Amino acid sequence: MNRGERANILGFYVDKITMDQLIERIDGFVKWPKTNAHTIVLLNPHLLLEAKKIAGYKDYIQKADIVTADGIGILLAGRVLGSRFPERVTGTDLMPKLIELCADKGYSLYFLGGEAGIAEKAKQIFEQKYPTVKIVGTHHGYFAPEEEKKIVMEINKKKTDILIVCMGAYKQEMFIQRHLNELTVSVCFGNGAAFDFITGKRRRAPLLMQRFGIEWLFRLFVEPRRLWKRYLIGNAIFIWLLIRELIKRQLACGQR
Q1: 138 within a domain of the structure (yes/no)
Q2: What are the pLDDT digits (tens) for 30-67?
Q3: What is the rounded distance in angstroms from the CA atom of residue 59 to the CA atom of residue 245?
Q4: Are residues 63 and 155 in the same domain?
């Protein structure tokens, strides 16, 4: 399957892909699986900054089959660097469309992550809306390292097509990376707080704020203690890196 056009955002290649195209690609991944699971990364500035600090994380993102522009910061960076993205492709918006695809095609899903009972509640919500969907199992995200092998065995035993891991940035991707050679799923990806948003444990920003790209501001207002470093300090660092990249490009052009 050919890879489409990509943009280099501060050293990370991000696919210029729409939500509909992503669903199409996932459909293709399940139809024509490869030896190892296909991986997807929903990239935002926070993930990008974490990956710059952690070599294994950066390697995981760079090797992913698809990297989408999840955060508004990635979209703005694309504009500033001359590589516009067709739209923002977020993990929370992906969920209902993915469930619809699976319900229609008979693909199976496994939900891993969240506090005890959250993944199961998300499963029940989707099953009520899409009676034909096959969510073959759930497990919370608070488990000891020695339990991982057992969880992977259960995911494989359930003949899972698509694995969704919601354990927060870095942890979820590193879980996938550790077990990529053991997992028999066709597609897997980390999706942050998606289960919390689906179940109402966390509130999502009003639609108007989402459309204007200031969803992060709403999240900061709702959870200031947990998110102030991510959004205030993290966003400042991201902007500085972007300015530095622009200066570097201008200097390179001036030397030609």
Answers
A1: yes
A2: 998 777 899 999 999 999 999 999 889 999 999 999 99
A3: 21
A4: yes
Domain co-membership, 114 together with 157: yes
Higher pLDDT, 139 or 209: 139
Exposure of 161 in the CB half-sphere (CA atoms within 13 A): 21
Rounded to whole angstroms, how far apart are CA atoms 209 and 214? Answer: 5
CA–CA dist 152, 20 (Å, integer): 30
Q: Which residues contact 202 (CB under 8 A, 6 or more apart)?
A: 193, 196, 222, 223
The total of structural domains in the chain comes to 2
**pTM, entire model:** 0.92
Is 239 found in the same domain as 131?
A: no
CATH number at residue 65: 3.40.50
The answer to whether residue 239 sits within a structural domain is yes
| Dihedral sign, Cα of residue 17, residue 14, residue 162, residue 27 | positive
Rounded CA-CA distance 57/48 in Å is: 9
